[in-house]
Amino acid sequence: MSFDRMWAELAPVGRAADGGYHRYTWAGADTDARAWFTGEAAARGLDVRTDRNGNLWAWWGGPGPGAVATGSHLDSVPDGGAFDGPLGVVSALAAVDELRARGVRPARPLVLAVFVEEEGGRFGVPCLGSRLTAGEISPERARGLADADGVTWAEAMAAAGHDPDLIGPDPDTLASLDVFVELHVEQGRALEDTVHPVGVASAIWPHGRWRMDFTGRADHAGTTRLADRNDPMLPFAHAVLAARAQAEEHGARATVARSVIVPNGTNAIPSLVSAWLDARADSEDTLTAVVEGVRARAEAAAREHGVGVAMTAESRTPLVSFAHGLRDRLAAVVGTRAPDPRVPVLPTGAGHDAGVLAAHVPTAMLYVRNPTGVSHSPKEWARPDDCHAGVLALADVLQDLLARPVGEVAP
Amino acid sequence: MSFDRMWAELAPVGRAADGGYHRYTWAGADTDARAWFTGEAAARGLDVRTDRNGNLWAWWGGPGPGAVATGSHLDSVPDGGAFDGPLGVVSALAAVDELRARGVRPARPLVLAVFVEEEGGRFGVPCLGSRLTAGEISPERARGLADADGVTWAEAMAAAGHDPDLIGPDPDTLASLDVFVELHVEQGRALEDTVHPVGVASAIWPHGRWRMDFTGRADHAGTTRLADRNDPMLPFAHAVLAARAQAEEHGARATVARSVIVPNGTNAIPSLVSAWLDARADSEDTLTAVVEGVRARAEAAAREHGVGVAMTAESRTPLVSFAHGLRDRLAAVVGTRAPDPRVPVLPTGAGHDAGVLAAHVPTAMLYVRNPTGVSHSPKEWARPDDCHAGVLALADVLQDLLARPVGEVAP
C-alpha cells in the first residue's frame, strides 16, 4: 500500500532525536512537510492551490462545486506525535491511490485539504486556518497573533511568500464543498476495548480554557509564621484537585496542566500563581457545572488563606454535533468491512478543523484506533494494520459519497 | 544620626522602579554598594581589605587578633527588600560613629565585615562568602557554580578583578576574631507583638530543601479518560497541601513555593512535575517528622495515580544554637536601654552568615523589629525609630565587648 512508503518518507520531517515532532507553521519542518504534500499531489496529477489563508487544496477534478473533501493538517504541538494530523493527510493521498486502483472515475470533484496552524503550536489559536476560512476569527486579530519570539502571523506569512493582507473569510471555497470527512488518530483508547480499528465521530464536546490568578503576598518561607501568610500555592493546589474531583463527579474531563508561579523561588512564598483549567464535557450544562465547581472550591480555599482569586474564560467552544445523516452513512459504509457491522460512534474532547467546518459544510470524522490513547506526545502511535484499515475505510466512504447526488448528505 | 544620611545614599543602589532590589554578586549594583561601603569606611580612617574570597573587612585598629566583629551583607535576593543585609552594614558604620561620639577608644580591634553572596541570589549557594572562609564548601565546587547565564563564580570573580585561584578556607582571619555580632532586620513579626524594637537571637532552626520529582505520562488533556491518566499534577498538589498540614501539626514551617512543569501546556497532561520543599523546625527530629510526613503523602498520592515520585535532599543545615553566654550578655546590655529589661530572645528559620561563623567564633545576632514581618520582598520594612534603636543597641553591645578581656565570651 502506498501509505507505507509515504509514511516512511514523511516521518523524519521535523522529528527530534527523542522522537518528538516540531512542525511549526511558516517555518522549517512544516514548510518541508507542505512541500512534500504538494509534490505527492502533483505526482498524482492533482491541481494544488494555496488559498488566501495558507491552506492547501489538491483537486482531483475541479476546482468546482459539489466537491467531496477530505484532509487534516501537518503542523504539530511542541514535542508532539507523528499521527495527529499527518495520518489524515497521508491516508487521503493513499485513498486516492486506492480509488484509482479500483477504477473509480469521480462524477464530481474530490479535494484533499491541508489546514494551516491547526494546533496553534506557534501562534496560540488552534484551527487558525479553518477559522479564518470560515470567518470565525477576524483577519486583523489573526495578523497580529505573535509567536514566542514576537513574530506576528502577518510577518511570518509574508516571509513565507504569502500576502497577509488577503487573509480572511473564503465563502467561495466553502460553497464549493458538498461534504468534508477528516480521518484522525483516536486521542483516547475507547476503540482499543473493541474489535474495531476504525470508528466514527458523533460530536466534539463543548470545551474551553479558564485562567485562574491567585494573588497572595510575597514573604520569606523560612521566617513567616503560618498564621501570617497569604500563600497562593494553597488555593492553587486545591483547584488542581478540585478539577479532578469535578471531572469524576460529572463524567467529564478537567485538567490543570499549566501554571506560572511568581517569583518561583524555593524560599519565597509567591505573590502570584496563575493556572489554567482545561475542561470538556458532553453538554454545555455539565461543562458549566464542572467549571463552577472548580471556581467554588478555588474561591473557598482562597478566602481561607487570605488570597485573592480571579477566574476568567479565555475561550469556550460550544458543542459540535456532526451531521447525523452523514455520520450514520459513514458508520454503515465502514461497517461493511469491519469485523462487526456495529461500528462505534464516539464523542471526543478534542477540537479539530472538522469541528470548525461543521457549522458550514456537512462534516464527519473517522478515528483510527490508538492502542495507548496517548496523543500530543512522542509516544502517540497506531498499529500499521489499523492505519491500513483507516485508508480502506476512508476510500470506501469517499467512493460512496462521490457516487451520490450533490446535496444529498444533509445534517 | 549618620544612619539616616547613609541609608538615603545607599537606598537607590540596585532598586528597580517597583521598589524591588537587584544586587547580584560581582556585578553592577552589588559592586556599587560595595564601593559605597569602602568609601564610607575609608572616610572614617578604617583600613579596608578584601579577603581571598571577596568578603570586605574594615578595621578600626588592626588587622589583628582579639577583634570584635560586626557586619552583614549587601547583596539581595531577586526583587528583594532594602533591609535584609544592608541594615546590618549601615548600622555597623553608624555604630562606629556613635562609639566615637561617645569618646570610646577601643583597646582591641573592631572590624566591620561585608560578606559576599549571602543570599545565593546569583550562584545559588547561600552564605557562599562565609562558607568559603569557614572551609564549609570546597574551592573547586565554588569556582564551578554557575549563574543563570552559565557564567561561573570563577569567571565572574576574575572579571571583577579578583583571583579565583586563591579562594578557600581562611583560618587566619577566623582566628583573629574574638566574637561576631550580626544585626539583621527581623524576618517575622514576633517583636511587633511586644514593646521591643530590638531582640536577640537564640538559634537558627535546622532547615533544608528537598526536591520532589513526580513522573507521569504526557497525554492529551481533552481526550484521555481519567482512568487512563498518570497525571503528576495531582500528587504534586497533595504534596503542596501536605507541607502546610505537616507544618501546622508540628509547629514548624514547610512550604512548596517553586515548581517546574513539563511541558506546561494548557491541554497537555505533564510528563514531569518537579517541586521544592523548604522545611524548618525547632529540632532535628521535628524537621525529620515534617519532611517524612510530606514524603508519605506524596508517595501515597503518587501510587494512587500511577505516578513515580523521587524525593531527594538538596541541602540540610543542622541547628545553630548561638553561644549562650554571649547571647545572655547581649540581652542584658540591650535591656538597659529597652522599654522593658526582659529583651525577647527569639529563634529564626532563616540562615545567615552568623550561622556559618557560629561553628568557629562565638557569635550572636540582634534583630530589628519588622512591623509586617515581610522579607525578601520590596515591601520589607522597619520603622526609622526602630532602626535608630538598633544602631544604639549595636553600639552598646560593641562598647561592652570591646571593654572586656579577649576570650571571655565563650559559648
Descriptive notes:
In chain A, the strands form three sheets. In chain A, strands 1, 2, 3, 4, 5, 6, 13, 14 and 15 form a nine-stranded mixed β-sheet that branches. The model of chain A has no long low-confidence stretch (mean pLDDT 95). Chain A folds into two domains: 2-205 and 319-402, 3-Layer(aba) Sandwich (Aminopeptidase), CATH 3.40.630; 207-317, Alpha-Beta Plaits (2-Layer Sandwich). In chain A, helix 1 runs antiparallel to helix 3 (86-101), helix 3 crosses helix 12 and helix 10 packs across helix 12 (384-402). Chain A has helices spanning 2-10, 28-43, 86-101, 128-134, 139-144, 153-159, 171-176, 233-250, 284-304, 324-337, 353-357, 384-402; strands at residues 47-50, 56-60, 67-73, 110-115, 177-185, 198-204, 207-215, 219-220, 253-262, 268-269, 272-280, 308-317, 320-321, 345-348, 363-368. By secondary structure, the first copy, chain A, is an alpha/beta fold. Chain A contains twelve helices and 15 strands. At the A-B interface, strand 8, helix 8, strand 9, strand 10 and strand 11 of A face strand 8, helix 8, strand 9, strand 10 and strand 11 of B.
